Amino acid sequence: MPRASWSGFLRLSLVSCPVYLSPATTRTKSLRLHQVWRPAAADEPGPEEPDRDRDGQVGAGSRPQPADPRETERAGQATRIALRPHDPRAGEEIAKSAVVKGYEYGRGQFVTFTAEELKALDVESSKVVDLESFVPRGDIDAVYFDSAYYLYPDGPIAVEALRVIGAAMTEAGVAGIGRLTLSRRERMVVVQPRGPGMALFTLRAADEVRLAQFGDDKGDLDAEMVAIARAIIRQRTGTFDPSIHRDRYQDALRALIEAKLRGLPIRHREVIAPPPVIDLMAALKRSLAEETPAISGTTAKKKRARPAADRRQRSLLLPVTGSRKRKEEPATEPAAVAMKPRRKASRLA
Prior knowledge:
The protein is of the alpha+beta class. It has helices at 115-119, 157-172, 223-236, 248-262, 280-305, 333-348, and strands spanning 6-12, 15-23, 36-37, 79-80, 101-106, 109-113, 128-130, 133-136, 145-153, 174-182, 185-194, 197-203.
């Protein structure tokens, strides 16, 4: 069973079914760079005071404190630091159990809340996703989509109800709009059928989406330039395959780590910014000319790689005598049957 991040009910009018949410996306385990403290060697002069002794400069609060100072066995060894809650005035560490939620209503003035007080703020959408309205699928701008979840039936009783609601939404070509409270925030959500199940997407609020400022679209475009751009797009059009995407930055970071661990020389890559386009028509024509050979060359390779089909009927292929061998069978059984009447006819003659 998928891990449930929220459980409650999906309701359509008077029909309610228990459901639970499971995240539809996950984060790939990328290479993480930590904050570390690398103290300078005792005889290494600092950049600001090259002639002074470095041992007397490391005082309390002048540098980040390591997570465990005893792990630093020699000067110059990097040690990962730890960020812990502390009293900024006294510098003493504070237990996590003593940390509470608070709102700063004035500079340095807070009103605090207990866990029970925050729990009492729960509204109906904390446990129920009420499908309040429906809109045609595709009407919601993708810029409003936030997080994706799969909506699973919570128990065998809810399976039929969820499938009925999903089938009705599929036939109508609509998506359901509702509300859901997650992490003390009530969000608008959209529910879409996904085969026998459903998917739920949290939506950003209107004040979270900035208005586009593209300017006006006045003025006629050159029809020839649009046609050339359309031809380039058509040659690059295919099916969406997310598996071909690779994080090139992570690959470069992994190669850098490997080179530093092996003591290899570091090769710096230069990212060249493309020059600005001055003559748009000339750039489009050059792009189309460069795209066409690549596409046609790939198509020709595919055609050459595909063996030509033998259109002759295998039953009519005659065996070839001599030392030359054929990769195919000399003759199939139907060919031998077809030759028998001819041999009989020669004997009668």
